[in-house]
Amino acid sequence: PTMAHSKALLVLENFIGGKFVPCSSYIDSYNPSTGDVYCRVPDSGKEEVEAAVKAAKDAFPIWSSKSPLERSQILNKLADLIEHDLEEFAQAESKDQGKTITFARTVDIPRAVHNFRFFASSILHHVTECSEMPAMGCVHYTSRAPVGVAGLISPWNLPLYLLTWKIAPAIACGNTVVAKPSEMTSVTAWMMCKLLEKAGVPPGVVNVVFGTGARAGEALVCHPDVPLISFTGSTRTAQRITERSAPHCKRLSLELGGKNPAIIFDDADLSQCIPTTVRSSFANQGEICLCTSRIFVQRGIYSEFLKKFVAEAKKWKTGNPSDPTIDVGALISKEHLEKVRTYVKKAQAEGARVLCGEGVDPLAVPPGNQKGYFMLPTVIVEVKDESCCMQEEIFGPVTCVVAFDTEEEVIRRANGVKYGLAATVWSGNVGRVHRVAHRLQSGLVWTNCWLVRDLNLPFGGMKASGIGREGAKDSYEFFTEVKTITIKH
Ligand code: NAD
């Protein structure tokens, strides 16, 4: 690894076959809270991907023949090493992504550590099936084996968190991997590579190629020796990946976007619901696939809800992400900030009203952050269900609040988008929450809470929000190939 001190730029290198290797060309990576270029990321293409796949293929026979216990011990060691450097990782993630240091310290990096520990443990507990046919004198059983080289492609919003959510199960199952993090947030993946050798991960088991989706990502998706691709990102990219991988009939896991509703019935406990819904709307600048962006409030409590919700949203402080008292950091890029702002303008042009945030309240950031990509938590009302703000994923600190009357109506409206990732339901009526949860087209439904996860259980979306699920059993099934064996005695 090199630091080009002359320009004070951080220069990343690919990690292939256990070694850091420079690349012939680089792309700039920005610090979203200042607008400055501070890092150079390899612009890898076919050649680099080819070398990484070869290293992963070469490492597969040895890694796949290790016992789950041996692999588990290595994953635990890696978790310990990341945890030891937690503060350094958190600082890097905050600087690279724009998220607050508090979020990186309490969510991103602890979860990356936990991902390795979780799969280090879960890999020890799987059993396969067996069925007997005494009349035929036969016994059948299943056996599971790692598939080979897994291609892992991850987005910029939760960089190390989501990358390790793929690397951990893939290598725990005995696969080797070639990972391609987002070109906008590559630093923590590179830092993790520096710890692999010390953790005991053999060379070639984890390879990381940095670069854009169009070059490095596609080269991985199209590589004939990569039989499975685990992708988290936008629905549009997933369509492209599906097309490009189709000639090879690759196994795909696709975790995509959302347009997540919160449904708030008139018997909801607002003292819990309001702070949680502000959090579910604006956490990580609204840049979480699970963030709430459509809030349906039953008419009887609509005005009260709105007043309290806006008051709570205004308490969220936007500013320098490295300040631990800040709640909202910078958005990922200038282009993304423009895109999010455009949604607010479109809503206003359609007659919607902005109650707080963008264009309504003054945005004050410290002098050093004037060129950063900041936006205040923004609440929009009087917006039609057909509006692009109610249909498309905005992926920023913007949420729409609308009123509804009946349970039947709100289920229909909540389901009336192309996505189906996560929903929240707020009510004290146990019968109602079960009924509504069953009828929502959503891979996850949280009742009277948000973002409470048990990694054992399936995670993933319906409709345009994805294909496949991740979790203890689900990731194990995705990252292994099953065989049914019949023995006649
Ligand atoms: P994106 O689709 O633009 O990029 C994701 C990754 O794919 C990046 O690494 C990118 O370089 C790569 N990529 C782009 N084009 C590619 C191509 N043609 N071939 C191969 N790889 C390619 O998404 P993003 O903007 O980085 O992330 C935001 C999106 O991710 C949002 O839609 C969000 O909802 C979604 N997301 C989903 C989940 C989930 O678990 N469901 C989690 C986080 C984010």
Describe the fold and architecture.
The chain is an alpha/beta fold and 489 residues long. It folds into 2 domains: 10-257 and 465-488, Aldehyde Dehydrogenase, Chain A, domain 1 (3-Layer(aba) Sandwich); 260-447, Aldehyde Dehydrogenase, Chain A, domain 2. It is 38% helix and 23% strand. It contains 15 helices and 24 strands. The strands form 6 sheets. A 7-stranded mixed sheet has the order 16-17-18-15-14-20-21, with helices on both faces. A 6-stranded mixed sheet has the order 11-10-9-12-13-23, sandwiched between helices. The chain starts with a strand and ends with a strand. Nicotinamide-adenine-dinucleotide (NAD) binds next to α7 and α8.
List keywords for this structure.
seven-stranded mixed sheet; Aldehyde_DH_dom; 2-aminomuconic semialdehyde dehydrogenase; Aldehyde Dehydrogenase, Chain A, domain 1; Aldehyde Dehydrogenase, Chain A, domain 2; alpha/beta; oxidoreductase; Ald_DH_CS_CYS; binds nicotinamide-adenine-dinucleotide; 489 residues
Write a concise synopsis of the structure shown.
The protein has 489 residues and is an alpha/beta fold. The protein is 38% helix and 23% strand.
CATH topology title of the largest domain: Aldehyde Dehydrogenase, Chain A, domain 1
Tally of structural domains: 2
CATH hierarchy: architecture of the largest domain: 3-Layer(aba) Sandwich
Average pLDDT metric: 97
Secondary structure: helix percent = 25-40%
What molecules are bound to this protein?
Answer: nicotinamide-adenine-dinucleotide
State Rg: 23 Å
Basic shape: globular
- Top CATH class of the largest domain: Alpha Beta
The CATH superfamily of the largest domain appears as: Aldehyde Dehydrogenase, Chain A, domain 1
Question: For the report, how would you describe the main beta sheet?
Answer: 7 strands, mixed
User: How much strand content do the residues show?
Assistant: 15-25%
Number of helical elements: 15
Compute the number of strand runs.
24
In angstroms, what separates the terminal alpha carbons?
59 Å
Low-confidence stretches: 1-6
